[in-house]
Design goal:
Largest sheet: 2 strands, antiparallel
Order of helices and strands: EEHHHHH
Oligomer: single chain
CATH topology: Hypothetical Protein Ta1238, Chain: A
CATH superfamily: Cobalamin adenosyltransferase-like
Structural class: mainly alpha
Strand order of the largest sheet: 1-2
Distance between the termini: 48 Å
Radius of gyration: 17 Å
Number of strands: 2
Length: about 170
């Protein structure tokens, strides 16, 4: 099977429902940003030395794959997609709370950096914020599944906490 179809040579692509849109559309930008975020997280995983962190990040990548599918649907018919409800958002909050308890209170602004894993988590956080902004614009203009924006908002907080933890685990002041 060939990977190329040549159907996008005219600058369009198909959404999940078959509708063709410009590759420059806001919807394509939204799921593209989500895909880029997943790739950034994958890069952080490659530097992770902690099994629990790797497990958390792999779960998030699976969630982002589902979110990208929701973003690629322009209709409200999501019955063929895997479930994605508020429980996913609460799960992120639970992890944030658990990890935050093991970290010292913030006394100053944190500069992105530190270990390679933490640095990539900070990069993923900034890409997450961009994906959130793109999704907000999409929601305002075309509509978007209601749990995507809160999930991305909470995820950027989690990525910040995970970066702090990755640095703390390696005795890096951050």
């Amino acid at each position: 099977m060939r990977i190329y179809t040549k159907t996008g040579d005219d600058g369009t692509t198909s959404l999940c429902d078959g509708k063709r849109v410009s590759k420059n559309s806001m919807r394509v930008a939204a799921y593209g940003d989500i895909d880029e975020l997943s790739s950034c997280i994958g890069l952080a995983v490659s530097f992770s030395e902690e099994k629990k962190l790797t497990t958390i990040l792999h779960t998030i990548q699976h969630d982002l794959f589902i979110l990208g599918s929701y973003a690629a649907h322009c209709s409200n018919n999501h019955e063929k997609l895997p479930d994605f409800d508020e429980a996913k958002i609460y799960a992120l909050e639970s992890i944030i709370d658990e990890i935050s308890e093991s970290l010292p209170p913030l006394q100053h602004f944190i500069l992105p950096g530190g270990t390679p894993c933490a640095s990539h988590l900070h990069m993923a956080r900034t890409v997450c914020r961009r994906a959130e902004r793109t999704c907000i614009a999409l929601a305002e203009n075309e509509g978007l599944y209601k749990h995507i924006i809160p999930y991305l908002n909470r995820l950027s907080d989690l990525l910040f906490v995970l970066a702090r933890k990755a640095n703390k685990g390696n005795d890096v002041r951050a």
